[in-house]
Design a protein that fits this description.
The structure holds two protein chains of two kinds. By secondary structure, chain A is an alpha/beta fold. Chain A is 28% helix and 27% strand. In chain A, helix 15 (592-595) links the parallel strand 29 (582-586) and strand 30 (603-607). Classes of the chains: A alpha/beta, B alpha+beta.
C-alpha cells in the first residue's frame, strides 16, 4: 500500500524559548519561535509507515519557506521514501482553502510522478499554530476522496482497511471502500519512535528533495496564496499573557503549608460561592433579549446556524450558536435560522428552538440510517445555495469541524475556525475613503496557542465560521414565533465509508459532564488510579459536600494515555469543552491542547510542582506543589468548619 | 561567639540573612541526601563587600563558614557542621561586582534576574557565581557561543561548578571546568576581594606565591603529591609549577570564596548527532569506543552495560534484547550544504562503518529536536535505579577513572565486582575511561559487602595510576578501612603526606580554618 503524508512546518508553541517573550508587554515574538514538524504529523507518518508494510512507498509533502526542507528531510530520516517541498512566494498568505487547493494539486502530481497506486493520504488532525483542522477535509472535498477524521488506529488487512476514529462519545470503526482516501490522525495514534538509524540518516542527507513552485503545479496566482484565498485577515492583535496569573502559593517557600492552603481553600470557596451571577451571566437574558427583537414581519434574509442534537435534543453548543446568530440577525434585521441536524428530530424539538432565538428552523426529515460527515456536508452544500444565508455558523465539535470544512471547500467559501468573537461590520475597502456598502461578518479567533487574535472576513459569498462550545451565552426568547420547514435528507453515499461499529462510551462511561459547574481534572501528575482514588476522590466528595453541588471528574490526554481514566473524561482539543464556575487542575501541565478545552472556566485553580507549568498562567490560584503535599490538606480544609 | 544563634550580628547589618529553621534547613544537605549538617544562620550576600564583612566577622568570632551553591553536588561538600552558611545565590548581577581587569568590547547580557558580560570576539564572559549554567548557556545562544562544561544538573550555579571542577559527558571533548577558567574574583578570609588572572600567580620549583587577598607570602606545593594522569576531582590540583587558578578550581570552598569568574567560551555545536549503538557483547562495545576516541568531532562516548539496559528497558521496551551493551556516541559535524540539517552522507557513512565493523546489531540515531528525547532515554537509567533503590537500602556508586592503557584491567575488576550476588549497574563516561559501578544492595548485609568491594576497587584504581573520584569530588566522604577504622577518603590516593600537603595550602590561605571545615580533608 502506498501512502502520502502531509507535514506542516509550524512554530513550536509548546516549547516557547524564554527569550521569545517580550517581558515588558507580555507578548510573544513570533520570529523567536522554533520551527518544527507538526507533532500530530509525526503520528500520521507513523501510521503511513505501518500502512506501507514492506511493499509500498511513503512520500511526504510539506509546504512553506525553503527552510521547511528540513521537515521533509526529517520525514525521510524516519522512513519516508521521498519528499517534496512546495515553496513559492505566490503561496504566501494562503488560507486553508488555498492551501488545500495547492496540496490537492501536489498530491495528484506526486501520485503521478512517484507512480503511487491509489495511496492512503495521512495528515495530523490539526496543527498547533492555526489549529483549524480544515485542510485535510478540504482536500477530501476537492479531490472527492473518502475522509476518515480523527483516527486513533488502523488495521490493514488482506482485503480491507479499517480505521478506529474518535467521536464525541466514543469511537467509530470505519472501513474504507475506495482509494485514494484521506485520514486525519490524532495524538492517540501510535507514536513515531524518537530514533532513526545512521543508515536512514545518511539516506536522508543524500536524498534530493524536490521543490515545486506554483508553475510546477500548473497553478495561477489567483488559485493560491493571498489571491486564491477565500478569507482575508483584516486585523492581528498580540495578546498579552501578563496578569492572567492570580495568586501563587509556592509550597517550597511557604512558611506554613497547612495554614496557607487552608486560607486559599477558604478564598476559593468564597469566590465560587459568589459567582452565581457570573455563571448565569451568559445564560440569562440580556440586553439583546425579547424586548429589542426586530419586527418579524420585516425581517429580510437569513443568518443561519447549524444546531447538532444528541438524544433528539439540541446540544448546549448549538443553542449558544443560535443565540449569537439571533443577536447578529437582529442587528441586520434578518431571520435567525437553525439547521437542526439529527437522526430523528421530533416536531416539538424543532419548534422548541424558537425559545432560544430561532425565527426559522430547517429540520431534516429522515434519514433512514445514521448519516456520516459526508452526508451532512452534502446537506449543507444543498441548503446554502438554496437559502442564500448571510453567513453560516457551525459548532466546532469534532463532527462540526469536518462538515464545515467539507462543505466550505465544495462551495468555495471562506471558513474561519474556532471564532471567539463575531460582529457585523462593513466590508473592508482598499480605498479607505470609500465606504463599502455591504455588511460582513467580522470573525475574531485566537491563533498561535492563543497568543494572537486575528480578525478575518470572507472575501466572497456567505462567511462560514465554527465556534467552540462555551464561547457564547445561551439566550432565551420566550413566546418567539418560529416557522419550521422540513427538508428531506437521504443518506446515500456515506462517502464510500462503511460504519462497521460504534463504540459508544456514553452508556457505560459517561465521562466528564460538559455542563457541570465544578470540574476537578487530573493529569499525569496524579500518577495512578490508586492515587486518584486515595487523594482525588475524597477531595471531590469534600468539594461536593462543602459547595452543595455536584462535581464532575475530568482529565487531560496524558491521564488517558497513562490509563488513569478512560477517554470520555478527557477535556481539551480532542476531548470535551467545559466552562465551569470552578476548574481545579491537579497535576496537569496545561499544554495548549488541554487549555483549549477549559479556558473559558470562570476560576481555575492549579496544583503542579513545576512553577513553569503553563496551567499556572491561566489560574486564579496557582499552587506550586505535589498532589500528596496539597490535596489531603485541601480536603481537610474543606471538611473543617471555618467561618464563611 | 556562641550567643548569636537567634539573630544576625549588628556588625553585619544590611546583609540579607535568614534564621528561620525551615529556610536554614534548605542549606543543610545536598542532592545526595546522605549528609545532614547544622547551622544557625544563612547569609545571602549580594556582592564581594558583603562577603568580606561576613568573613571578617566570622574570623573574629571564630565561626566556621560553609559556602553554598545550588546544592546539586553529591558529596556533602557544602553541608555545614556548624556556624554560618554563606550562599552565593544572590551573586547574580555583574554590575554589582568589582569590574574584571579586562579591556575590549563587552556586551552586558541581561536575563530576567541576572546579568553577565560577554565579549563575542574574545569568546570570554564575566559571570557572577550565582548564575546557573542553563541561564548562562541559554543567554549565550544568540551569540552562537556556549560555556562548555556540561554537568548533568544544568541548574548548578557557576560558583559551585568551579568549586567542584564540574565535568560532564562532553568533558571528553572540552575538558572539565578547570580548562575554561581564565580569572577569578575571590574573597579571602581576611575579607578583601581581588581578581586573580591565570598566569599571575604561578608556582616555580614548588613554591606558589599567594596574593594579598589570600594572605600573601607563599606556600610549598607539589611535594609528595602525585596527581593521577586521568580526569580527576579528588584533592587539590597541586604540582611544582601549578597556577593558582588551577588550585582554586576544584578546591571545594576550603581556600576562599569565589564571587565571579572570567570564563572561556566555545562555538556552540550546531549539528549534533547522537548514536546509541547496541552490541552483542561488552567486548565489542569497548572496542567501538577505541575506534571512536580518535575520530573527528566526537563530543562524548558513554557506556551502558547489560544490567543498565535491563533497567532502561522498563521505559524503553524496544531496546534490542539481551545480551546487549550500548555505547552512546555524540558527534558534532558541519552540516551538508543548503537547508540540509544533517552532516554530509559521507561523514555519516564513515561513522556507520565504525559501528558495523565493531559488530553493532542496531543503532538508535537522533539529530535536531530529537536530541531531547535521547536525553530522556539516558536519564531513564538514574530514574529507574533511584526508584529501585528507594525501596531498599541505598546505592553505593564508584567514580573512578584510570589511564587508558590500564583500562582493561580496571574493567576486569568491575566485572569481578559485578559478578557477585549484589545487583549492580556499570555505566558512564567510557570516552575518558571513567565508568560508574553502582552497587544496589538488597539489605544491610549486602551493603556491607558492597562497601568492601568498593574499597578494593578504589585500591585497584590507585594501583593502576587512576583516581578514586574523577568528577564527584571528595566533600565529606570517608572510607572505612578493612580493619574497621575510618580513614580520610583521600588517604587511599595520596596517603598521609598528600593530605598534609593539602592542609599546608589551606592553612596558608585560611589560617584560622574557618572555611568549609571537614571538607576534602579532616578539620584540624
Amino acid at each position: 500500500l502506498d501512502a502520502i503524508v502531509l507535514i506542516k512546518y509550524v512554530a513550536d508553541i509548546e516549547n516557547v524559548p524564554p527569550d521569545a517573550w517580550d517581558l515588558e508587554i507580555g507578548t510573544l515574538r513570533r520570529a523567536k519561535l522554533r520551527m518544527v514538524a507538526n507533532p500530530l504529523d509525526d503520528h500520521a507518518l507513523a501510521l503511513a509507515l505501518r500502512a506501507r508494510g514492506h511493499m509500498g512507498q511513503v512520500i511526504a509533502i510539506s509546504m512553506g519557506p525553503h527552510r521547511a526542507e528540513r521537515v521533509c528531510r526529517r520525514a525521510v530520516a524516519y522512513g519516508a521514501d521521498g519528499a517534496v517541498l512546495l515553496s513559492d512566494r505566490t503561496f504566501a498568505g494562503s488560507d486553508t482553502l488555498a492551501t488545500a487547493r495547492t496540496l490537492s494539486k501536489a498530491i495528484l502530481r506526486v501520485i503521478d510522478e512517484f507512480g503511487l497506486d491509489s495511496p492512503l493520504i495521512f495528515a495530523g488532525m490539526q496543527s498547533p499554530d492555526g489549529d483549524t483542522a480544515q485542510v485535510p477535509a478540504e482536500i477530501a472535498a476537492m479531490l472527492d476522496l473518502p475522509l476518515v477524521p480523527y483516527v486513533t488506529d488502523m488495521d490493514v488487512g488482506e482485503r480491507s482497511i479499517t480505521f478506529r476514529a474518535m467521536e464525541r462519545a466514543g469511537y467509530s470503526l470505519y472501513e474504507v471502500l475506495r482509494l485514494p482516501a484521506i485520514v486525519t490522525v490524532t495524538g492517540h495514534a501510535p507514536e513515531l519512535p524518537f530514533h532513526t538509524t545512521l543508515k536512514r540518516l545518511a539516506v536522508a542527507s543524500a536524498t534530493r528533495i524536490a521543490t515545486w513552485a506554483a508553475a510546477d503545479l500548473g497553478m495561477g496566482s489567483n488559485e493560491t496564496g493571498l489571491d486564491g484565498s477565500a478569507t482575508r485577515v483584516v486585523k492581528i492583535e498580540t495578546v498579552s499573557r501578563r496578569g492572567k496569573r492570580g495568586v501563587t502559593l509556592d509550597l517550597s517557600g511557604a512558611e506554613s503549608v497547612d495554614v496557607e492552603l487552608t486560607s486559599i481553600v477558604a478564598k476559593i470557596v468564597g469566590e465560587v460561592g459568589n459567582t452565581g451571577t457570573v455563571v448565569n451571566e451568559g445564560r440569562e437574558d440580556e440586553d439583546a433579549g425579547t424586548g429589542i427583537s426586530a419586527d418579524d414581519e420585516h425581517r429580510v434574509g437569513l443568518c443561519l446556524c447549524v444546531v447538532e442534537s444528541s438524544d433528539s435534543s439540541p446540544t448546549q453548543a448549538g443553542l449558544e450558536l443560535l443565540g449569537e446568530a439571533r443577536r447578529l440577525a437582529d442587528e441586520r434585521n434578518c431571520h435567525a435560522g437553525a439547521l437542526l441536524l439529527g437522526d430523528e428530530i421530533p416536531e416539538s424539538a424543532a419548534a422548541g428552538l424558537g425559545a432560544w432565538g430561532a425565527t426559522t428552523v430547517l429540520a431534516v426529515s429522515g434519514p433512514a440510517r445514521p448519516a456520516s460527515h459526508h452526508d451532512y456536508a452534502e446537506l449543507l452544500c444543498r441548503t446554502v445555495p438554496a437559502k442564500e444565508p448571510e453567513f453560516v455558523l457551525i459548532p466546532a465539535s469534532l463532527r462540526g469541524r469536518t462538515i464545515a470544512s467539507l462543505a466550505a471547500a465544495r462551495l468555495g467559501l471562506g471558513l474561519t475556525a474556532d471564532c471567539t468573537g463575531l460582529a457585523n461590520g462593513r466590508a473592508p475597502s482598499k480605498d479607505p475613503k470609500e465606504e463599502s456598502g455591504s455588511t460582513v461578518l467580522r470573525q475574531t479567533r485566537p491563533a498561535l496557542g492563543g497568543n494572537i487574535l486575528a480578525t478575518i472576513v470572507s472575501a466572497n459569498g456567505p462567511a462560514m465560521a465554527t465556534v467552540r462550545a462555551g464561547v457564547f451565552p445561551i439566550r432565551e426568547y420566550p413566546a418567539n414565533p418560529v416557522r419550521v420547514e422540513r427538508i428531506s435528507f437521504e443518506t446515500e453515499s456515506f462517502g464510500d465509508l462503511v460504519l462497521l461499529r460504534t463504540e459508544t462510551a456514553s452508556t457505560a462511561v459517561k465521562g466528564a459532564d460538559e455542563n457541570a459547574d465544578i470540574v476537578v481534572a487530573v493529569g499525569s501528575g496524579v500518577g495512578s488510579r490508586s492515587r486518584l482514588d486515595s487523594y482525588v476522590r475524597p477531595f471531590i466528595q469534600a468539594l461536593e459536600d462543602r459547595l452543595g453541588t455536584s462535581v464532575t471528574l475530568a482529565c487531560s490526554r496524558a491521564a488517558v494515555e497513562g490509563d488513569i481514566l478512560p477517554y470520555p473524561y478527557q477535556v481539551g482539543q480532542t476531548g470535551k469543552t467545559v466552562r465551569p464556575k470552578l476548574y481545579v487542575a491537579l497535576g496537569i501541565s496545561g499544554a495548549i491542547q488541554h487549555r483549549l478545552g477549559m479556558e473559558n472556566s470562570v476560576l481555575v485553580v492549579s496544583v503542579n510542582p513545576d512553577p513553569e507549568a503553563p496551567i499556572h498562567d491561566v489560574s486564579g490560584f496557582s499552587i506550586i506543589g505535589t498532589i500528596e503535599e496539597t490535596v489531603p490538606t485541601m480536603t481537610r480544609a474543606l471538611r473543617s468548619s471555618f467561618a464563611t | 561567639m556562641q550567643g548569636m544563634s537567634n539573630q544576625a550580628a549588628p556588625e553585619l547589618a544590611g546583609i540579607t540573612y535568614s534564621i528561620d529553621p525551615k529556610v536554614v534547613a534548605g542549606y543543610l544537605s545536598d542532592e545526595s541526601s546522605a549528609y545532614v549538617g547544622s547551622a544557625d544562620i544563612v547569609y545571602l550576600p549580594k556582592d564581594q563587600v558583603e562577603i568580606g564583612r561576613i568573613l571578617n566577622f566570622s574570623t573574629a568570632s571564630g565561626q566556621s563558614v560553609s559556602i553554598a551553591g545550588a546544592g546539586t553536588s553529591l558529596t556533602g561538600a557544602r553541608v555545614p557542621a556548624a556556624g554560618v552558611v554563606l550562599s552565593v545565590e544572590k551573586l547574580r548581577h555583574v554590575d554589582m561586582l568589582e569590574p574584571a581587569p579586562e579591556a575590549g568590547e563587552w556586551d552586558l547580557v541581561r536575563g530576567p534576574d541576572y546579568s553577565f558580560r560577554v565579549s563575542a570576539t574574545e569568546r570570554l564572559a564575566v559571570v557572577p557565581a550565582g548564575v546557573r549554567l542553563f541561564e548562562l548557556n541559554d543567554s549565550l545562544e544568540t551569540y552562537r557561543l556556549a560555556y562548555p562544561p556540561d554537568p548533568t544538573e544544568r541548574s548548578a550555579m557557576l560558583g559551585g561548578t568551579i568549586a567542584t571542577n564540574a565535568s560532564g559527558a562532553r568533558s571528553f571533548a572540552y575538558g572539565a571546568t578547570r580548562r575554561w577558567i581564565e580569572a577569578l574574583l575571590v574573597v579571602g578570609t581576611g575579607g578583601s576581594a581581588q581578581w586573580i588572572r591565570r598566569g599571575e600567580f604561578r608556582a616555580r620549583r614548588g613554591v606558589l606565591p599567594l596574593p594579598d587577598s589570600l594572605g600573601g607570602g607563599s606556600v610549598v606545593v607539589g611535594r609528595q603529591y602525585a596527581m593521577p594522569q586521568t580526569k580527576n576531582a579528588a584533592g587539590l590540583y597541586l604540582s611544582k609549577d601549578v597556577d593558582l587558578i588551577d588550585v582554586i578550581v576544584g578546591s571545594e570552598g576550603i581556600l576562599c570564596v569565589v564571587v565571579a569568574a572570567l570564563v572561556g567560551l566555545s562555538q556552540r555545536p550546531e549539528n549534533v548527532v547522537q548514536v546509541a549503538a547496541f552490541f552483542h557483547s561488552e567486548e565489542e562495545a569497548l572496542l567501538s569506543a577505541d575506534e571512536f576516541r580518535p575520530a573527528e568531532g566526537v563530543l562524548s562516548i558513554e557506556y551502558f552495560d547489560p544490567g543498565s539496559l535491563e533497567f532502561m528497558r522498563i521505559d524503553y521496551p524496544d531496546i534490542p534484547p539481551a545480551p546487549s551493551a550500548c555505547v552512546l556516541v555524540e558527534f558534532d559535524a558541519p552540516a551538508a550544504a543548503g537547508e540540509n540539517p544533517y552532516p554530509p552522507p559521507s561523514v555519516i557513512e564513515r561513522w556507520g562503518r565504525v559501528i558495523d565493523n565493531c559488530g553493532a546489531k542496531a543503532d538508535w540515531t537522533v539529530a535536531g529536536e530529537e536530541i531531547a528525547a535521547m536525553k530522556a532515554f539516558r536519564h531513564s537509567l538514574p530514574e529507574q535505579v533511584n526508584r529501585w533503590v528507594s525501596q531498599r537500602v541505598g546505592k553505593l556508586g564508584t567514580d573512578m577513572a584510570v589511564p587508558g592503557e590500564r583500562f582493561s584491567e580496571m574493567f576486569d575488576a568491575y566485572r569481578e565486582a559485578r559478578a557477585g550476588e549484589i545487583s549492580a549497574v556499570l555505566f558512564g563516561h567510557l570516552g575518558q575511561y571513567h565508568l560508574h559501578l553502582n552497587f544496589l544492595p538488597e539489605d544491610q548485609d549486602q551493603l556491607k559487602v558492597a562497601k568492601s568491594l568498593y574499597r578494593e576497587l578504589a585500591r585497584t584504581s590507585v594501583r593502576l595510576g587512576g583516581t578514586i573520584s574523577a568528577e564527584h569530588g571528595v566533600g565529606k566522604k570517608t572510607l572505612v578501612d578493612s580493619d574497621g577504622t575510618p580513614k580520610p577518603y583521600l588517604w587511599y590516593m595520596y596517603g598521609e603526606m598528600g593530605i598534609r600537603a593539602i592542609a599546608d595550602v589551606k592553612r596558608a590561605c585560611d589560617p584560622h580554618g574557618i572555611l568549609n571545615p571537614g571538607t576534602m580533608i579532616p578539620a584540624e
